[in-house]
Amino acid sequence: MTERSSKMVRTDDEWRQKLTPEQYHVCREGGTERPFSGEYVDHKDAGLYGCTGCLRPLFRSDAKFDSGCGWPSYWQPVDDAAILYREDNSLGMSRTEILCAHCECHLGHVFPDGPPPTGLRYCVNSVSLNFAADPDTE
């Protein structure tokens, strides 16, 4: 693994060793988990959701909301620089793909139908995330 300009670079073999087959499919191949099947869909604990690929912080629990879409949803990331945005015109629709800005793991998509104050819905696969509880709430 090497880091260049604050980006993590791993070989395909390194990713396959680090991730489960499902994580690899979602994070490296842009797949998705089935709706309502992910570990964090109904998760309500206070803490921080990070990237499963590099552990960088992505979303705080206080920005999580129940969108009813079947995947964990957030109205904002921890920092605008934490997320990389790409146009995605696959499956006959125009969407904005979101990736971890540090290691470029596929997270999901962002949509303009979220709650105030941003009006955004970051729809994220649970397998793309790890969770660290807030020690102040335990």
Automatic annotation (TrEMBL):
Key words of the record: Metal-binding, Oxidoreductase, Zinc
Catalysed reactions listed for this entry: L-methionyl-[protein] + [thioredoxin]-disulfide + H2O = L-methionyl-(R)-S-oxide-[protein] + [thioredoxin]-dithiol
HAMAP family the UniProt entry points to: MsrB
Pfam family, one: SelR
Cofactor(s) this protein requires: Zn(2+)
InterPro entries associated with the record: Met_Sox_Rdtase_MsrB, Met_Sox_Rdtase_MsrB_dom, Mss4-like_sf
UniProt-listed Enzyme Commission number(s): 1.8.4.12
GO biological process, alphabetically ordered: protein repair; response to oxidative stress
Protein name: Peptide methionine sulfoxide reductase MsrB
Taxonomic superkingdom: Bacteria
Record domain MsrB: where: 12-134
Active site residues per record: 123 (nucleophile)
Chain sites annotated for binding Zn(2+): 51, 54, 100, 103
Family in the record: Belongs to the MsrB Met sulfoxide reductase family.
The keyword Zinc appears for this protein: yes
Organism: Parendozoicomonas haliclonae
GO MF term (any one): peptide-methionine (R)-S-oxide reductase activity
Cofactor note: Binds 1 zinc ion per subunit. The zinc ion is important for the structural integrity of the protein.
A GO cellular component entry from the record: cytoplasm
